[in-house]
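User: I'm putting together a teaching handout on how multi-component assemblies are represented. Below are the sequence lines for each component of a complex, exactly as they appear in our records. Could you produce the 3D structure of the whole assembly as structure tokens, so the students can see both representations side by side? Please keep the chain order the same as the input.
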Amino acid sequence: MTKEQNRIMAKPKVATTSLAGCFGCHMSILDIDERILQLIELIEFDKSPINDIKEFTGECLVGIVEGGCANEENVRVLQDFRKHCKILISLGDCAINGGLPAMRNTIPLKECLDEAYLNGPSVYNPSGQIPNDPEIPLLLDKVYPCHEVVKMDYHLPGCPPSADTIWQTLVALLTDAPLELPYELIKYD
Amino acid sequence: MSENTITFEIDGVEVQGIAGQTIMAAADAVGIYIPRLCAFEGLPPFGSCRICTVKVNGRFQSACTQPIAEGIMVENDTEELLELRRNLVDMLFVEGNHFCMFCEKSGNCELQALAYRFGIAAPKYPYMFPADRNVDATHKDIFIDHNRCVLCARCIRASHDLDGKNVFQFVGRGPQKRIAVNSTAKLVGTDIDVTDQAVAVCPVGAILKKRVGYTIPVGQRKYDHEPIGSDIEANKQ
Ligand code: SF4
Ligand code: SF4
Ligand code: FES
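Assistant: Of course. Below is the structure of the complete assembly, with chains in the same order as your input.
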């Protein structure tokens, strides 16, 4: 193996996913702009919507999770991430506290479904059916923050967290440096 | 030095205050910030949030109510107290429904600013997502969102002491404790006015003025760049 191949082989892998999120946090990852070239020097992406790899190809150093758990599929994906990633990061407010989807947590699930499919002012649903196909992941009773489902190692708040927050955290993690985020980089909005 | 001068220590540093001052007021005067939530300059101390907890000669006291005394040793900026204050802020976040990402107070909120100052990335307690907190938007200029109320009683004190009214009161006990308005017809039935101090002093997004939300751009809000307490620390001697 050449030295170059060796270096590539040794690159740690990073996986990312968006559960009950809006992909805004992923947009913020892309907002690191040209630094993504530096990032690619440091890591290789495994399962992620960024490269469209659907299944894990092996063990990853870091898993970045956007969004909380709103349905059973979110839970399965999150558990899969826990299994394959050494370090799991909750990226953004939805992963940390459920975020906007968690607004339904104060309303009984049946009321939410009735409003969405039966009673809402713009609903046209003559059959009166609430979708219940086995293909559709079942909704959970409420939206759960990731750390209430599996152990999360780090939390990066923000809606979304800024690209600088993400960048500085990843670089610190990947280079084994202590992470000291300046005041301006921990924000909840 | 007058005979009213009292000499004591905060974190091993000798400071002087005036007899009758609280620990918080004396610390403020010399540029030492003691974190706080229910305390508000110009309102009588209330001592309910305990964010301002310090140790006085080894015992926990609330700095906003405890008067200074000659020779006392006050601990303020210690890991133990920071941890305690962090836990209190964490509890306040999970006890209510705090969705900062769309809250009109975000960036200007004292609870959020405390969490920022303490470097809290996520609360350590499970979220409660209480379902019994309503919004009273009956008044034409003001609304109350009980999801975000931290029960600091600033509105009660300001309405009574500064506005000369009696718009707010606590009802219930323990976890059921709530802010209520002095009218069966909700906020619209009270004599509250949008210019009342009771509206201005709410530290969080619980009492808000209508039609002025989100007017200050992100980056120019009160706590976007400087941590809460920086104004006090700027006077450090
Ligand atoms: S009141 Fe403060 S802490 Fe609560 S949601 Fe609004 S900004 Fe966040
Ligand atoms: S409404 Fe605001 S000022 Fe009144 S008790 Fe609640 S948080 Fe404090
Ligand atoms: S600020 Fe002292 S108890 Fe709230």
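A couple of points students might notice: The pocket of iron/sulfur cluster (ligand 2) is lined by residues B 149-155, 179, 202, 204, 206-207 (CB under 6 Å). Helices of chain B lie at 23-29, 79-95, 110-117, 154-162, 197-200, 230-233.
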